UniProtKB/TrEMBL annotation:
It comes from Malus baccata (Siberian crab apple). GTP binds at G96, L97, S98, G99, S100, G101, K102, T103, G151, N210, K211, T212, D213. The lineage of its organism: Eukaryota, Viridiplantae, Streptophyta, Embryophyta, Tracheophyta. GO terms for biological process: protein targeting to ER. GO terms for cellular component: signal recognition particle receptor complex. This is Signal recognition particle receptor subunit beta.
Amino acid sequence: MEGFEVEWKKQAQQWWSQSLHYVHRIPPQQIYAAMAVLLFTTFLLLLGMYVYMYICSINLVLELVCNFNYFDLFIYFCDVVRLFKRPKANTILVTGLSGSGKTVLFYQLRDGSFHQGTVTSMEPNEGTFVLHSEKSKNGKLNPIHVIDVPGHSRLRAKLDDFLPQAAGIVFLVDAVEFLPNCRAASEYLYDILTKASVVRKKIPVLILCNKTDKVTAHSKEFIRKQLEKEIDKLRASRSAVSTADLTNEFTLGAPGERFAFSQCQNKVTVGEASGLGGEISQVEQFIRDNVKS
C-alpha cells in the first residue's frame, strides 16, 4: 500500500513538471489571450443568466397583473376608507322600565321642559340637539344625539338597533317605586350588561336613580346594593341553563364571587336625578364625559 502511494506521488510530480514545462514553452501572448477568452466566456454566461432571470421576472409580473382581481382590491380599498371615515359615536340611549321618567328626562335635556312627560311613550323619542343647560354658554357647542327607548317589554328589542352607535347608556330607575319593580329592573339591566355589543365596545352605563327629590325615594346606595343582589341571583339561575338556550354571549362577574358592578368589563356607575325637579346635572356630566367632541 505504501509503495503504491510513493509511485502515485512520483507520477503526480512528473505530470506537474511536464505541465510547467509546457506552459513555459507557450508564448505569454497566447496565455493572455486564453485568459481573456475564459473571462469573456464567463461574463457572457453570467450575463445570459441575468437576462434570463430578468425576462422570467417580467413574465411573472405580467402574469400577476393580468390575473389580479381588481374588484377585490376595490372592495378592500372601500373598507379601509370606511374604517377611517367611521363617524364618532355621539348617541346616548335612555332606557329603563315604563314609568321611570325617561321621556321627562329627554325633554329636560332638550329644552328644559316637561312636555309629554307624564304620558308613557310607545315609540322612541329621538333628537339631535345642544343640551339645554349649555345653550347659554359661549363658544362652539356640540350637539348630542339622544334616543329615548321605550321601556315596555315588547319594545325593548329596539334597543339593539341603536347599540352600534351608542356612546353611553342611561338606565333609569324609579327611586320611589323601586322595590316592587326591583326584579324586573334587574332582569332588564342584566340583559343590557350581557349584550355582546355592550361588552365588546365597553359602552359605559349610568344607572340613574330618578325622583330622588321625593321623601319616600330610596337612596342610590340602597338601589345599587339591591340591583347587585338581584343580578347575582339571576346570574346563578341563568348559568344553570344550557348554553344552547342563552341569547347572550357574555356572563357577568367573577366566578365564585358575589356580583358587583365594578366587575363589569364596561364602566357602570350610579347617579341621582329629579326629572320633574330639573336636577339632571349628573346625567349631563355623564353625557359630556362619553360623547366625543
